[in-house]
């Protein structure tokens, strides 16, 4: 579990911290996976976010070989609680999944509330994302 004080949101300063965890298709080549994650980070960096930093580390399970995919793909995105940046972030993630529809999964967590995006239909993903956005934007 990733419960780290550095990823908690602070409504007082108007900043929302979103923990994004990208779990790539386990059959994907590690180098190709790293390139995909770099491209996703670059797309997120183009948004009007306050900061983008590596997420908290987790330990690999006993007997695991190589890097834990959750650790490799965890980032914390700090963004303004107003101005529509959160909606733009979610749309960027939704678009990214649509373009790279292998067995990738992205989870977004804000203050313990997690949304997982994966192999749902486009309509199911849209409904889940819309409800999550409403919970965190008040609209």
Keyword list:
139 residues; alpha+beta; 5-stranded antiparallel beta sheet; 5 strands; globular; disordered N terminus
State the strand order across the main sheet: 2-3-1-4-5
Q: What characteristic shape results from the CA principal axes?
A: globular
Protein structure class: alpha+beta
Distance between the termini: 29 Å
Rounded radius of gyration (Å) = 15 Å
- How many helices? The count is 4
The helicity comes to: 25-40%
Mean pLDDT: 76
Task: Write down how many β-strands occur, each being a DSSP E stretch of 2 or more residues.
Answer: 5
Low-pLDDT ranges: 1-6, 59-71
SSE arrangement, N to C: EHEHEHEEH
Strand content: 15-25%
Largest sheet: 5 strands, antiparallel
Summarize the topology.
Blueprint: E1 15-23, H1 30-45, E2 51-54, H2 69-72, E3 74-80, H3 85-99, E4 105-110, E5 113-117, H4 122-137
Helix pairs in contact: 3-4
């Amino acid at each position: 579990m990733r419960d780290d004080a550095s990823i908690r949101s602070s409504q007082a300063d108007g900043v929302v911290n979103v923990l994004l965890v990208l779990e790539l298709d386990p059959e994907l080549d590690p180098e190709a996976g790293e390139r995909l994650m770099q491209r996703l980070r670059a797309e997120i960096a183009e948004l009007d976010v306050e900061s983008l930093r590596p997420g908290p580390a987790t330990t690999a399970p006993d007997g695991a070989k190589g890097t834990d995919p959750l650790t490799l793909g965890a980032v914390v995105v700090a963004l303004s609680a107003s101005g529509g940046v959160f909606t733009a972030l979610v749309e960027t993630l939704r678009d990214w999944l649509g373009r790279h529809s292998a067995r990738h999964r992205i989870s977004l967590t804000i203050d313990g509330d997690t949304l997982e995006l994966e192999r749902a239909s486009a309509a199911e993903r849209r409904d889940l994302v819309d409800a999550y956005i409403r919970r965190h934007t008040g609209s």
